[in-house]
Amino acid sequence: MQNLAGMARRNLWLADAMLLAVAIIWGSSYAVAKQALWFYPVLGFLAIRFGLTFALLLPQLRGAGRRAIRPGLPLGLVMLGIFLCETWGVMLTSASNAAFLISLCVVFTPFVEWAMVRQRPSKLLFAACALSLAGVWLLTGGAQMALNLGDGLMLAAALLRAVLVCLTRRLTADQQMPALALTAVQSGVVASGCLLLGLLLPEGLPALPQSPAFWAATLYLVGFATLFALYAQNLALGRTSATRVSLLMGSEPLFGALIAGVWLGERLGVQGWIGGLMILLATLGTLCFGRTQRPAGIERGANHSGCRPVLTETP
Questions:
Q1: Does 115 map to a domain?
Q2: Which residues form the EamA domain (predicted)?
């Protein structure tokens, strides 16, 4: 009995450690993506990143994985919009702002669900929304508010992520399919869409970058921010509670701001930190006490965005 209890504690600590590592990785992804964009344009970068992800996950589309193709195509189009907004947003604003603003998808999701399925959010979620909006106001300048295009694109990406959550629930209800298979289809749609858009530009896409820094950043995002993160979520949700997972993963924006400061030399003033922490508190409040619902059809722990989880849903 003592051995079983000790093993359970070790499994819990291992799960927590893996999730904390994922939160740090996702926090670093904003700075890493910003660095990759120094060497190659947004459309080309996304085509390479998600093309590699699709190639690695292609074996998942055998057998039961084929069920993911039909819902994965429209969901992939939404995901394409998310990453176009998010990646251009990262390029045009600071990595720390991007990390905090994208976390608003957790607060937006219940309201999108309200609009789509008429499930009214709790009063606490309205309070969390007000707190997050006040945080955005402080983060982007307060009385001298200067919401730039990059910040606006990050807010659009957060809203689209919320749409993706609700649409995923609708399209995958009562269906059993491997989470990685759905991610494979979505990744293929994003890669194909970015490649097509890039080729339609008058100047086309430039030759593949030769910089080792670009390829290191891209492989890091594919290997760690997507594949390892999916594995860690699936493993951890089998060993700990969804609330505990959500609390650990909710620290991602904080790590994003810290890493952006160390790596890129970005600095948030006192007002910016207060605004960012208000957004983080609103997110954690939504995760812990908001009314959420797990989708029925996808394996527990699935990351429907292909990069980061929508925390109201899975982690």
A1: yes
A2: 15-140, 149-286
Counting the structural domains of the chain, the total is: 1
DSSP-based three-state secondary structure for 298: strand
- Tokens 């969901």, located at residue: 75
Each residue of 52-100: pLDDT tens digit? 999 999 999 998 889 999 999 999 999 999 999 999 999 999 888 888 8
Query: At 307, phi and psi to the nearest 5?
Result: -135, -55
Residue 82: domain span: 9-202+217-289
Specify the DSSP element, H or E, that contains 2.
helix 2-36
β partners of residue 177? 298
Its pTM stands at: 0.81
63 within some domain = yes
CA 236 from chain centre, in angstroms, equals 17
| Burial class for 207, CB neighbours closer than 10 Å (0-12, 13-18, 19+) | exposed
Q: Looking at the domain assignment, is residue 169 inside a domain? A: yes
**Left, alpha or beta for 145 (phi > 0: left; psi -120 to 50: alpha)?**
beta
Whether 96 contacts 260, CB under 8 Å? yes
Inside any domain, residue 208 = no
DSSP for 166-201, written as a single string: HHHHHHHTT--B-HHHHHHHHHHHHHHHHHHHHHHS
Rg (CA), the chain: 19
Q: How many CB atoms lie within 10 A of CB 288?
A: 12
Q: Which residues contact 270 (CB under 8 A, 6 or more apart)?
A: none
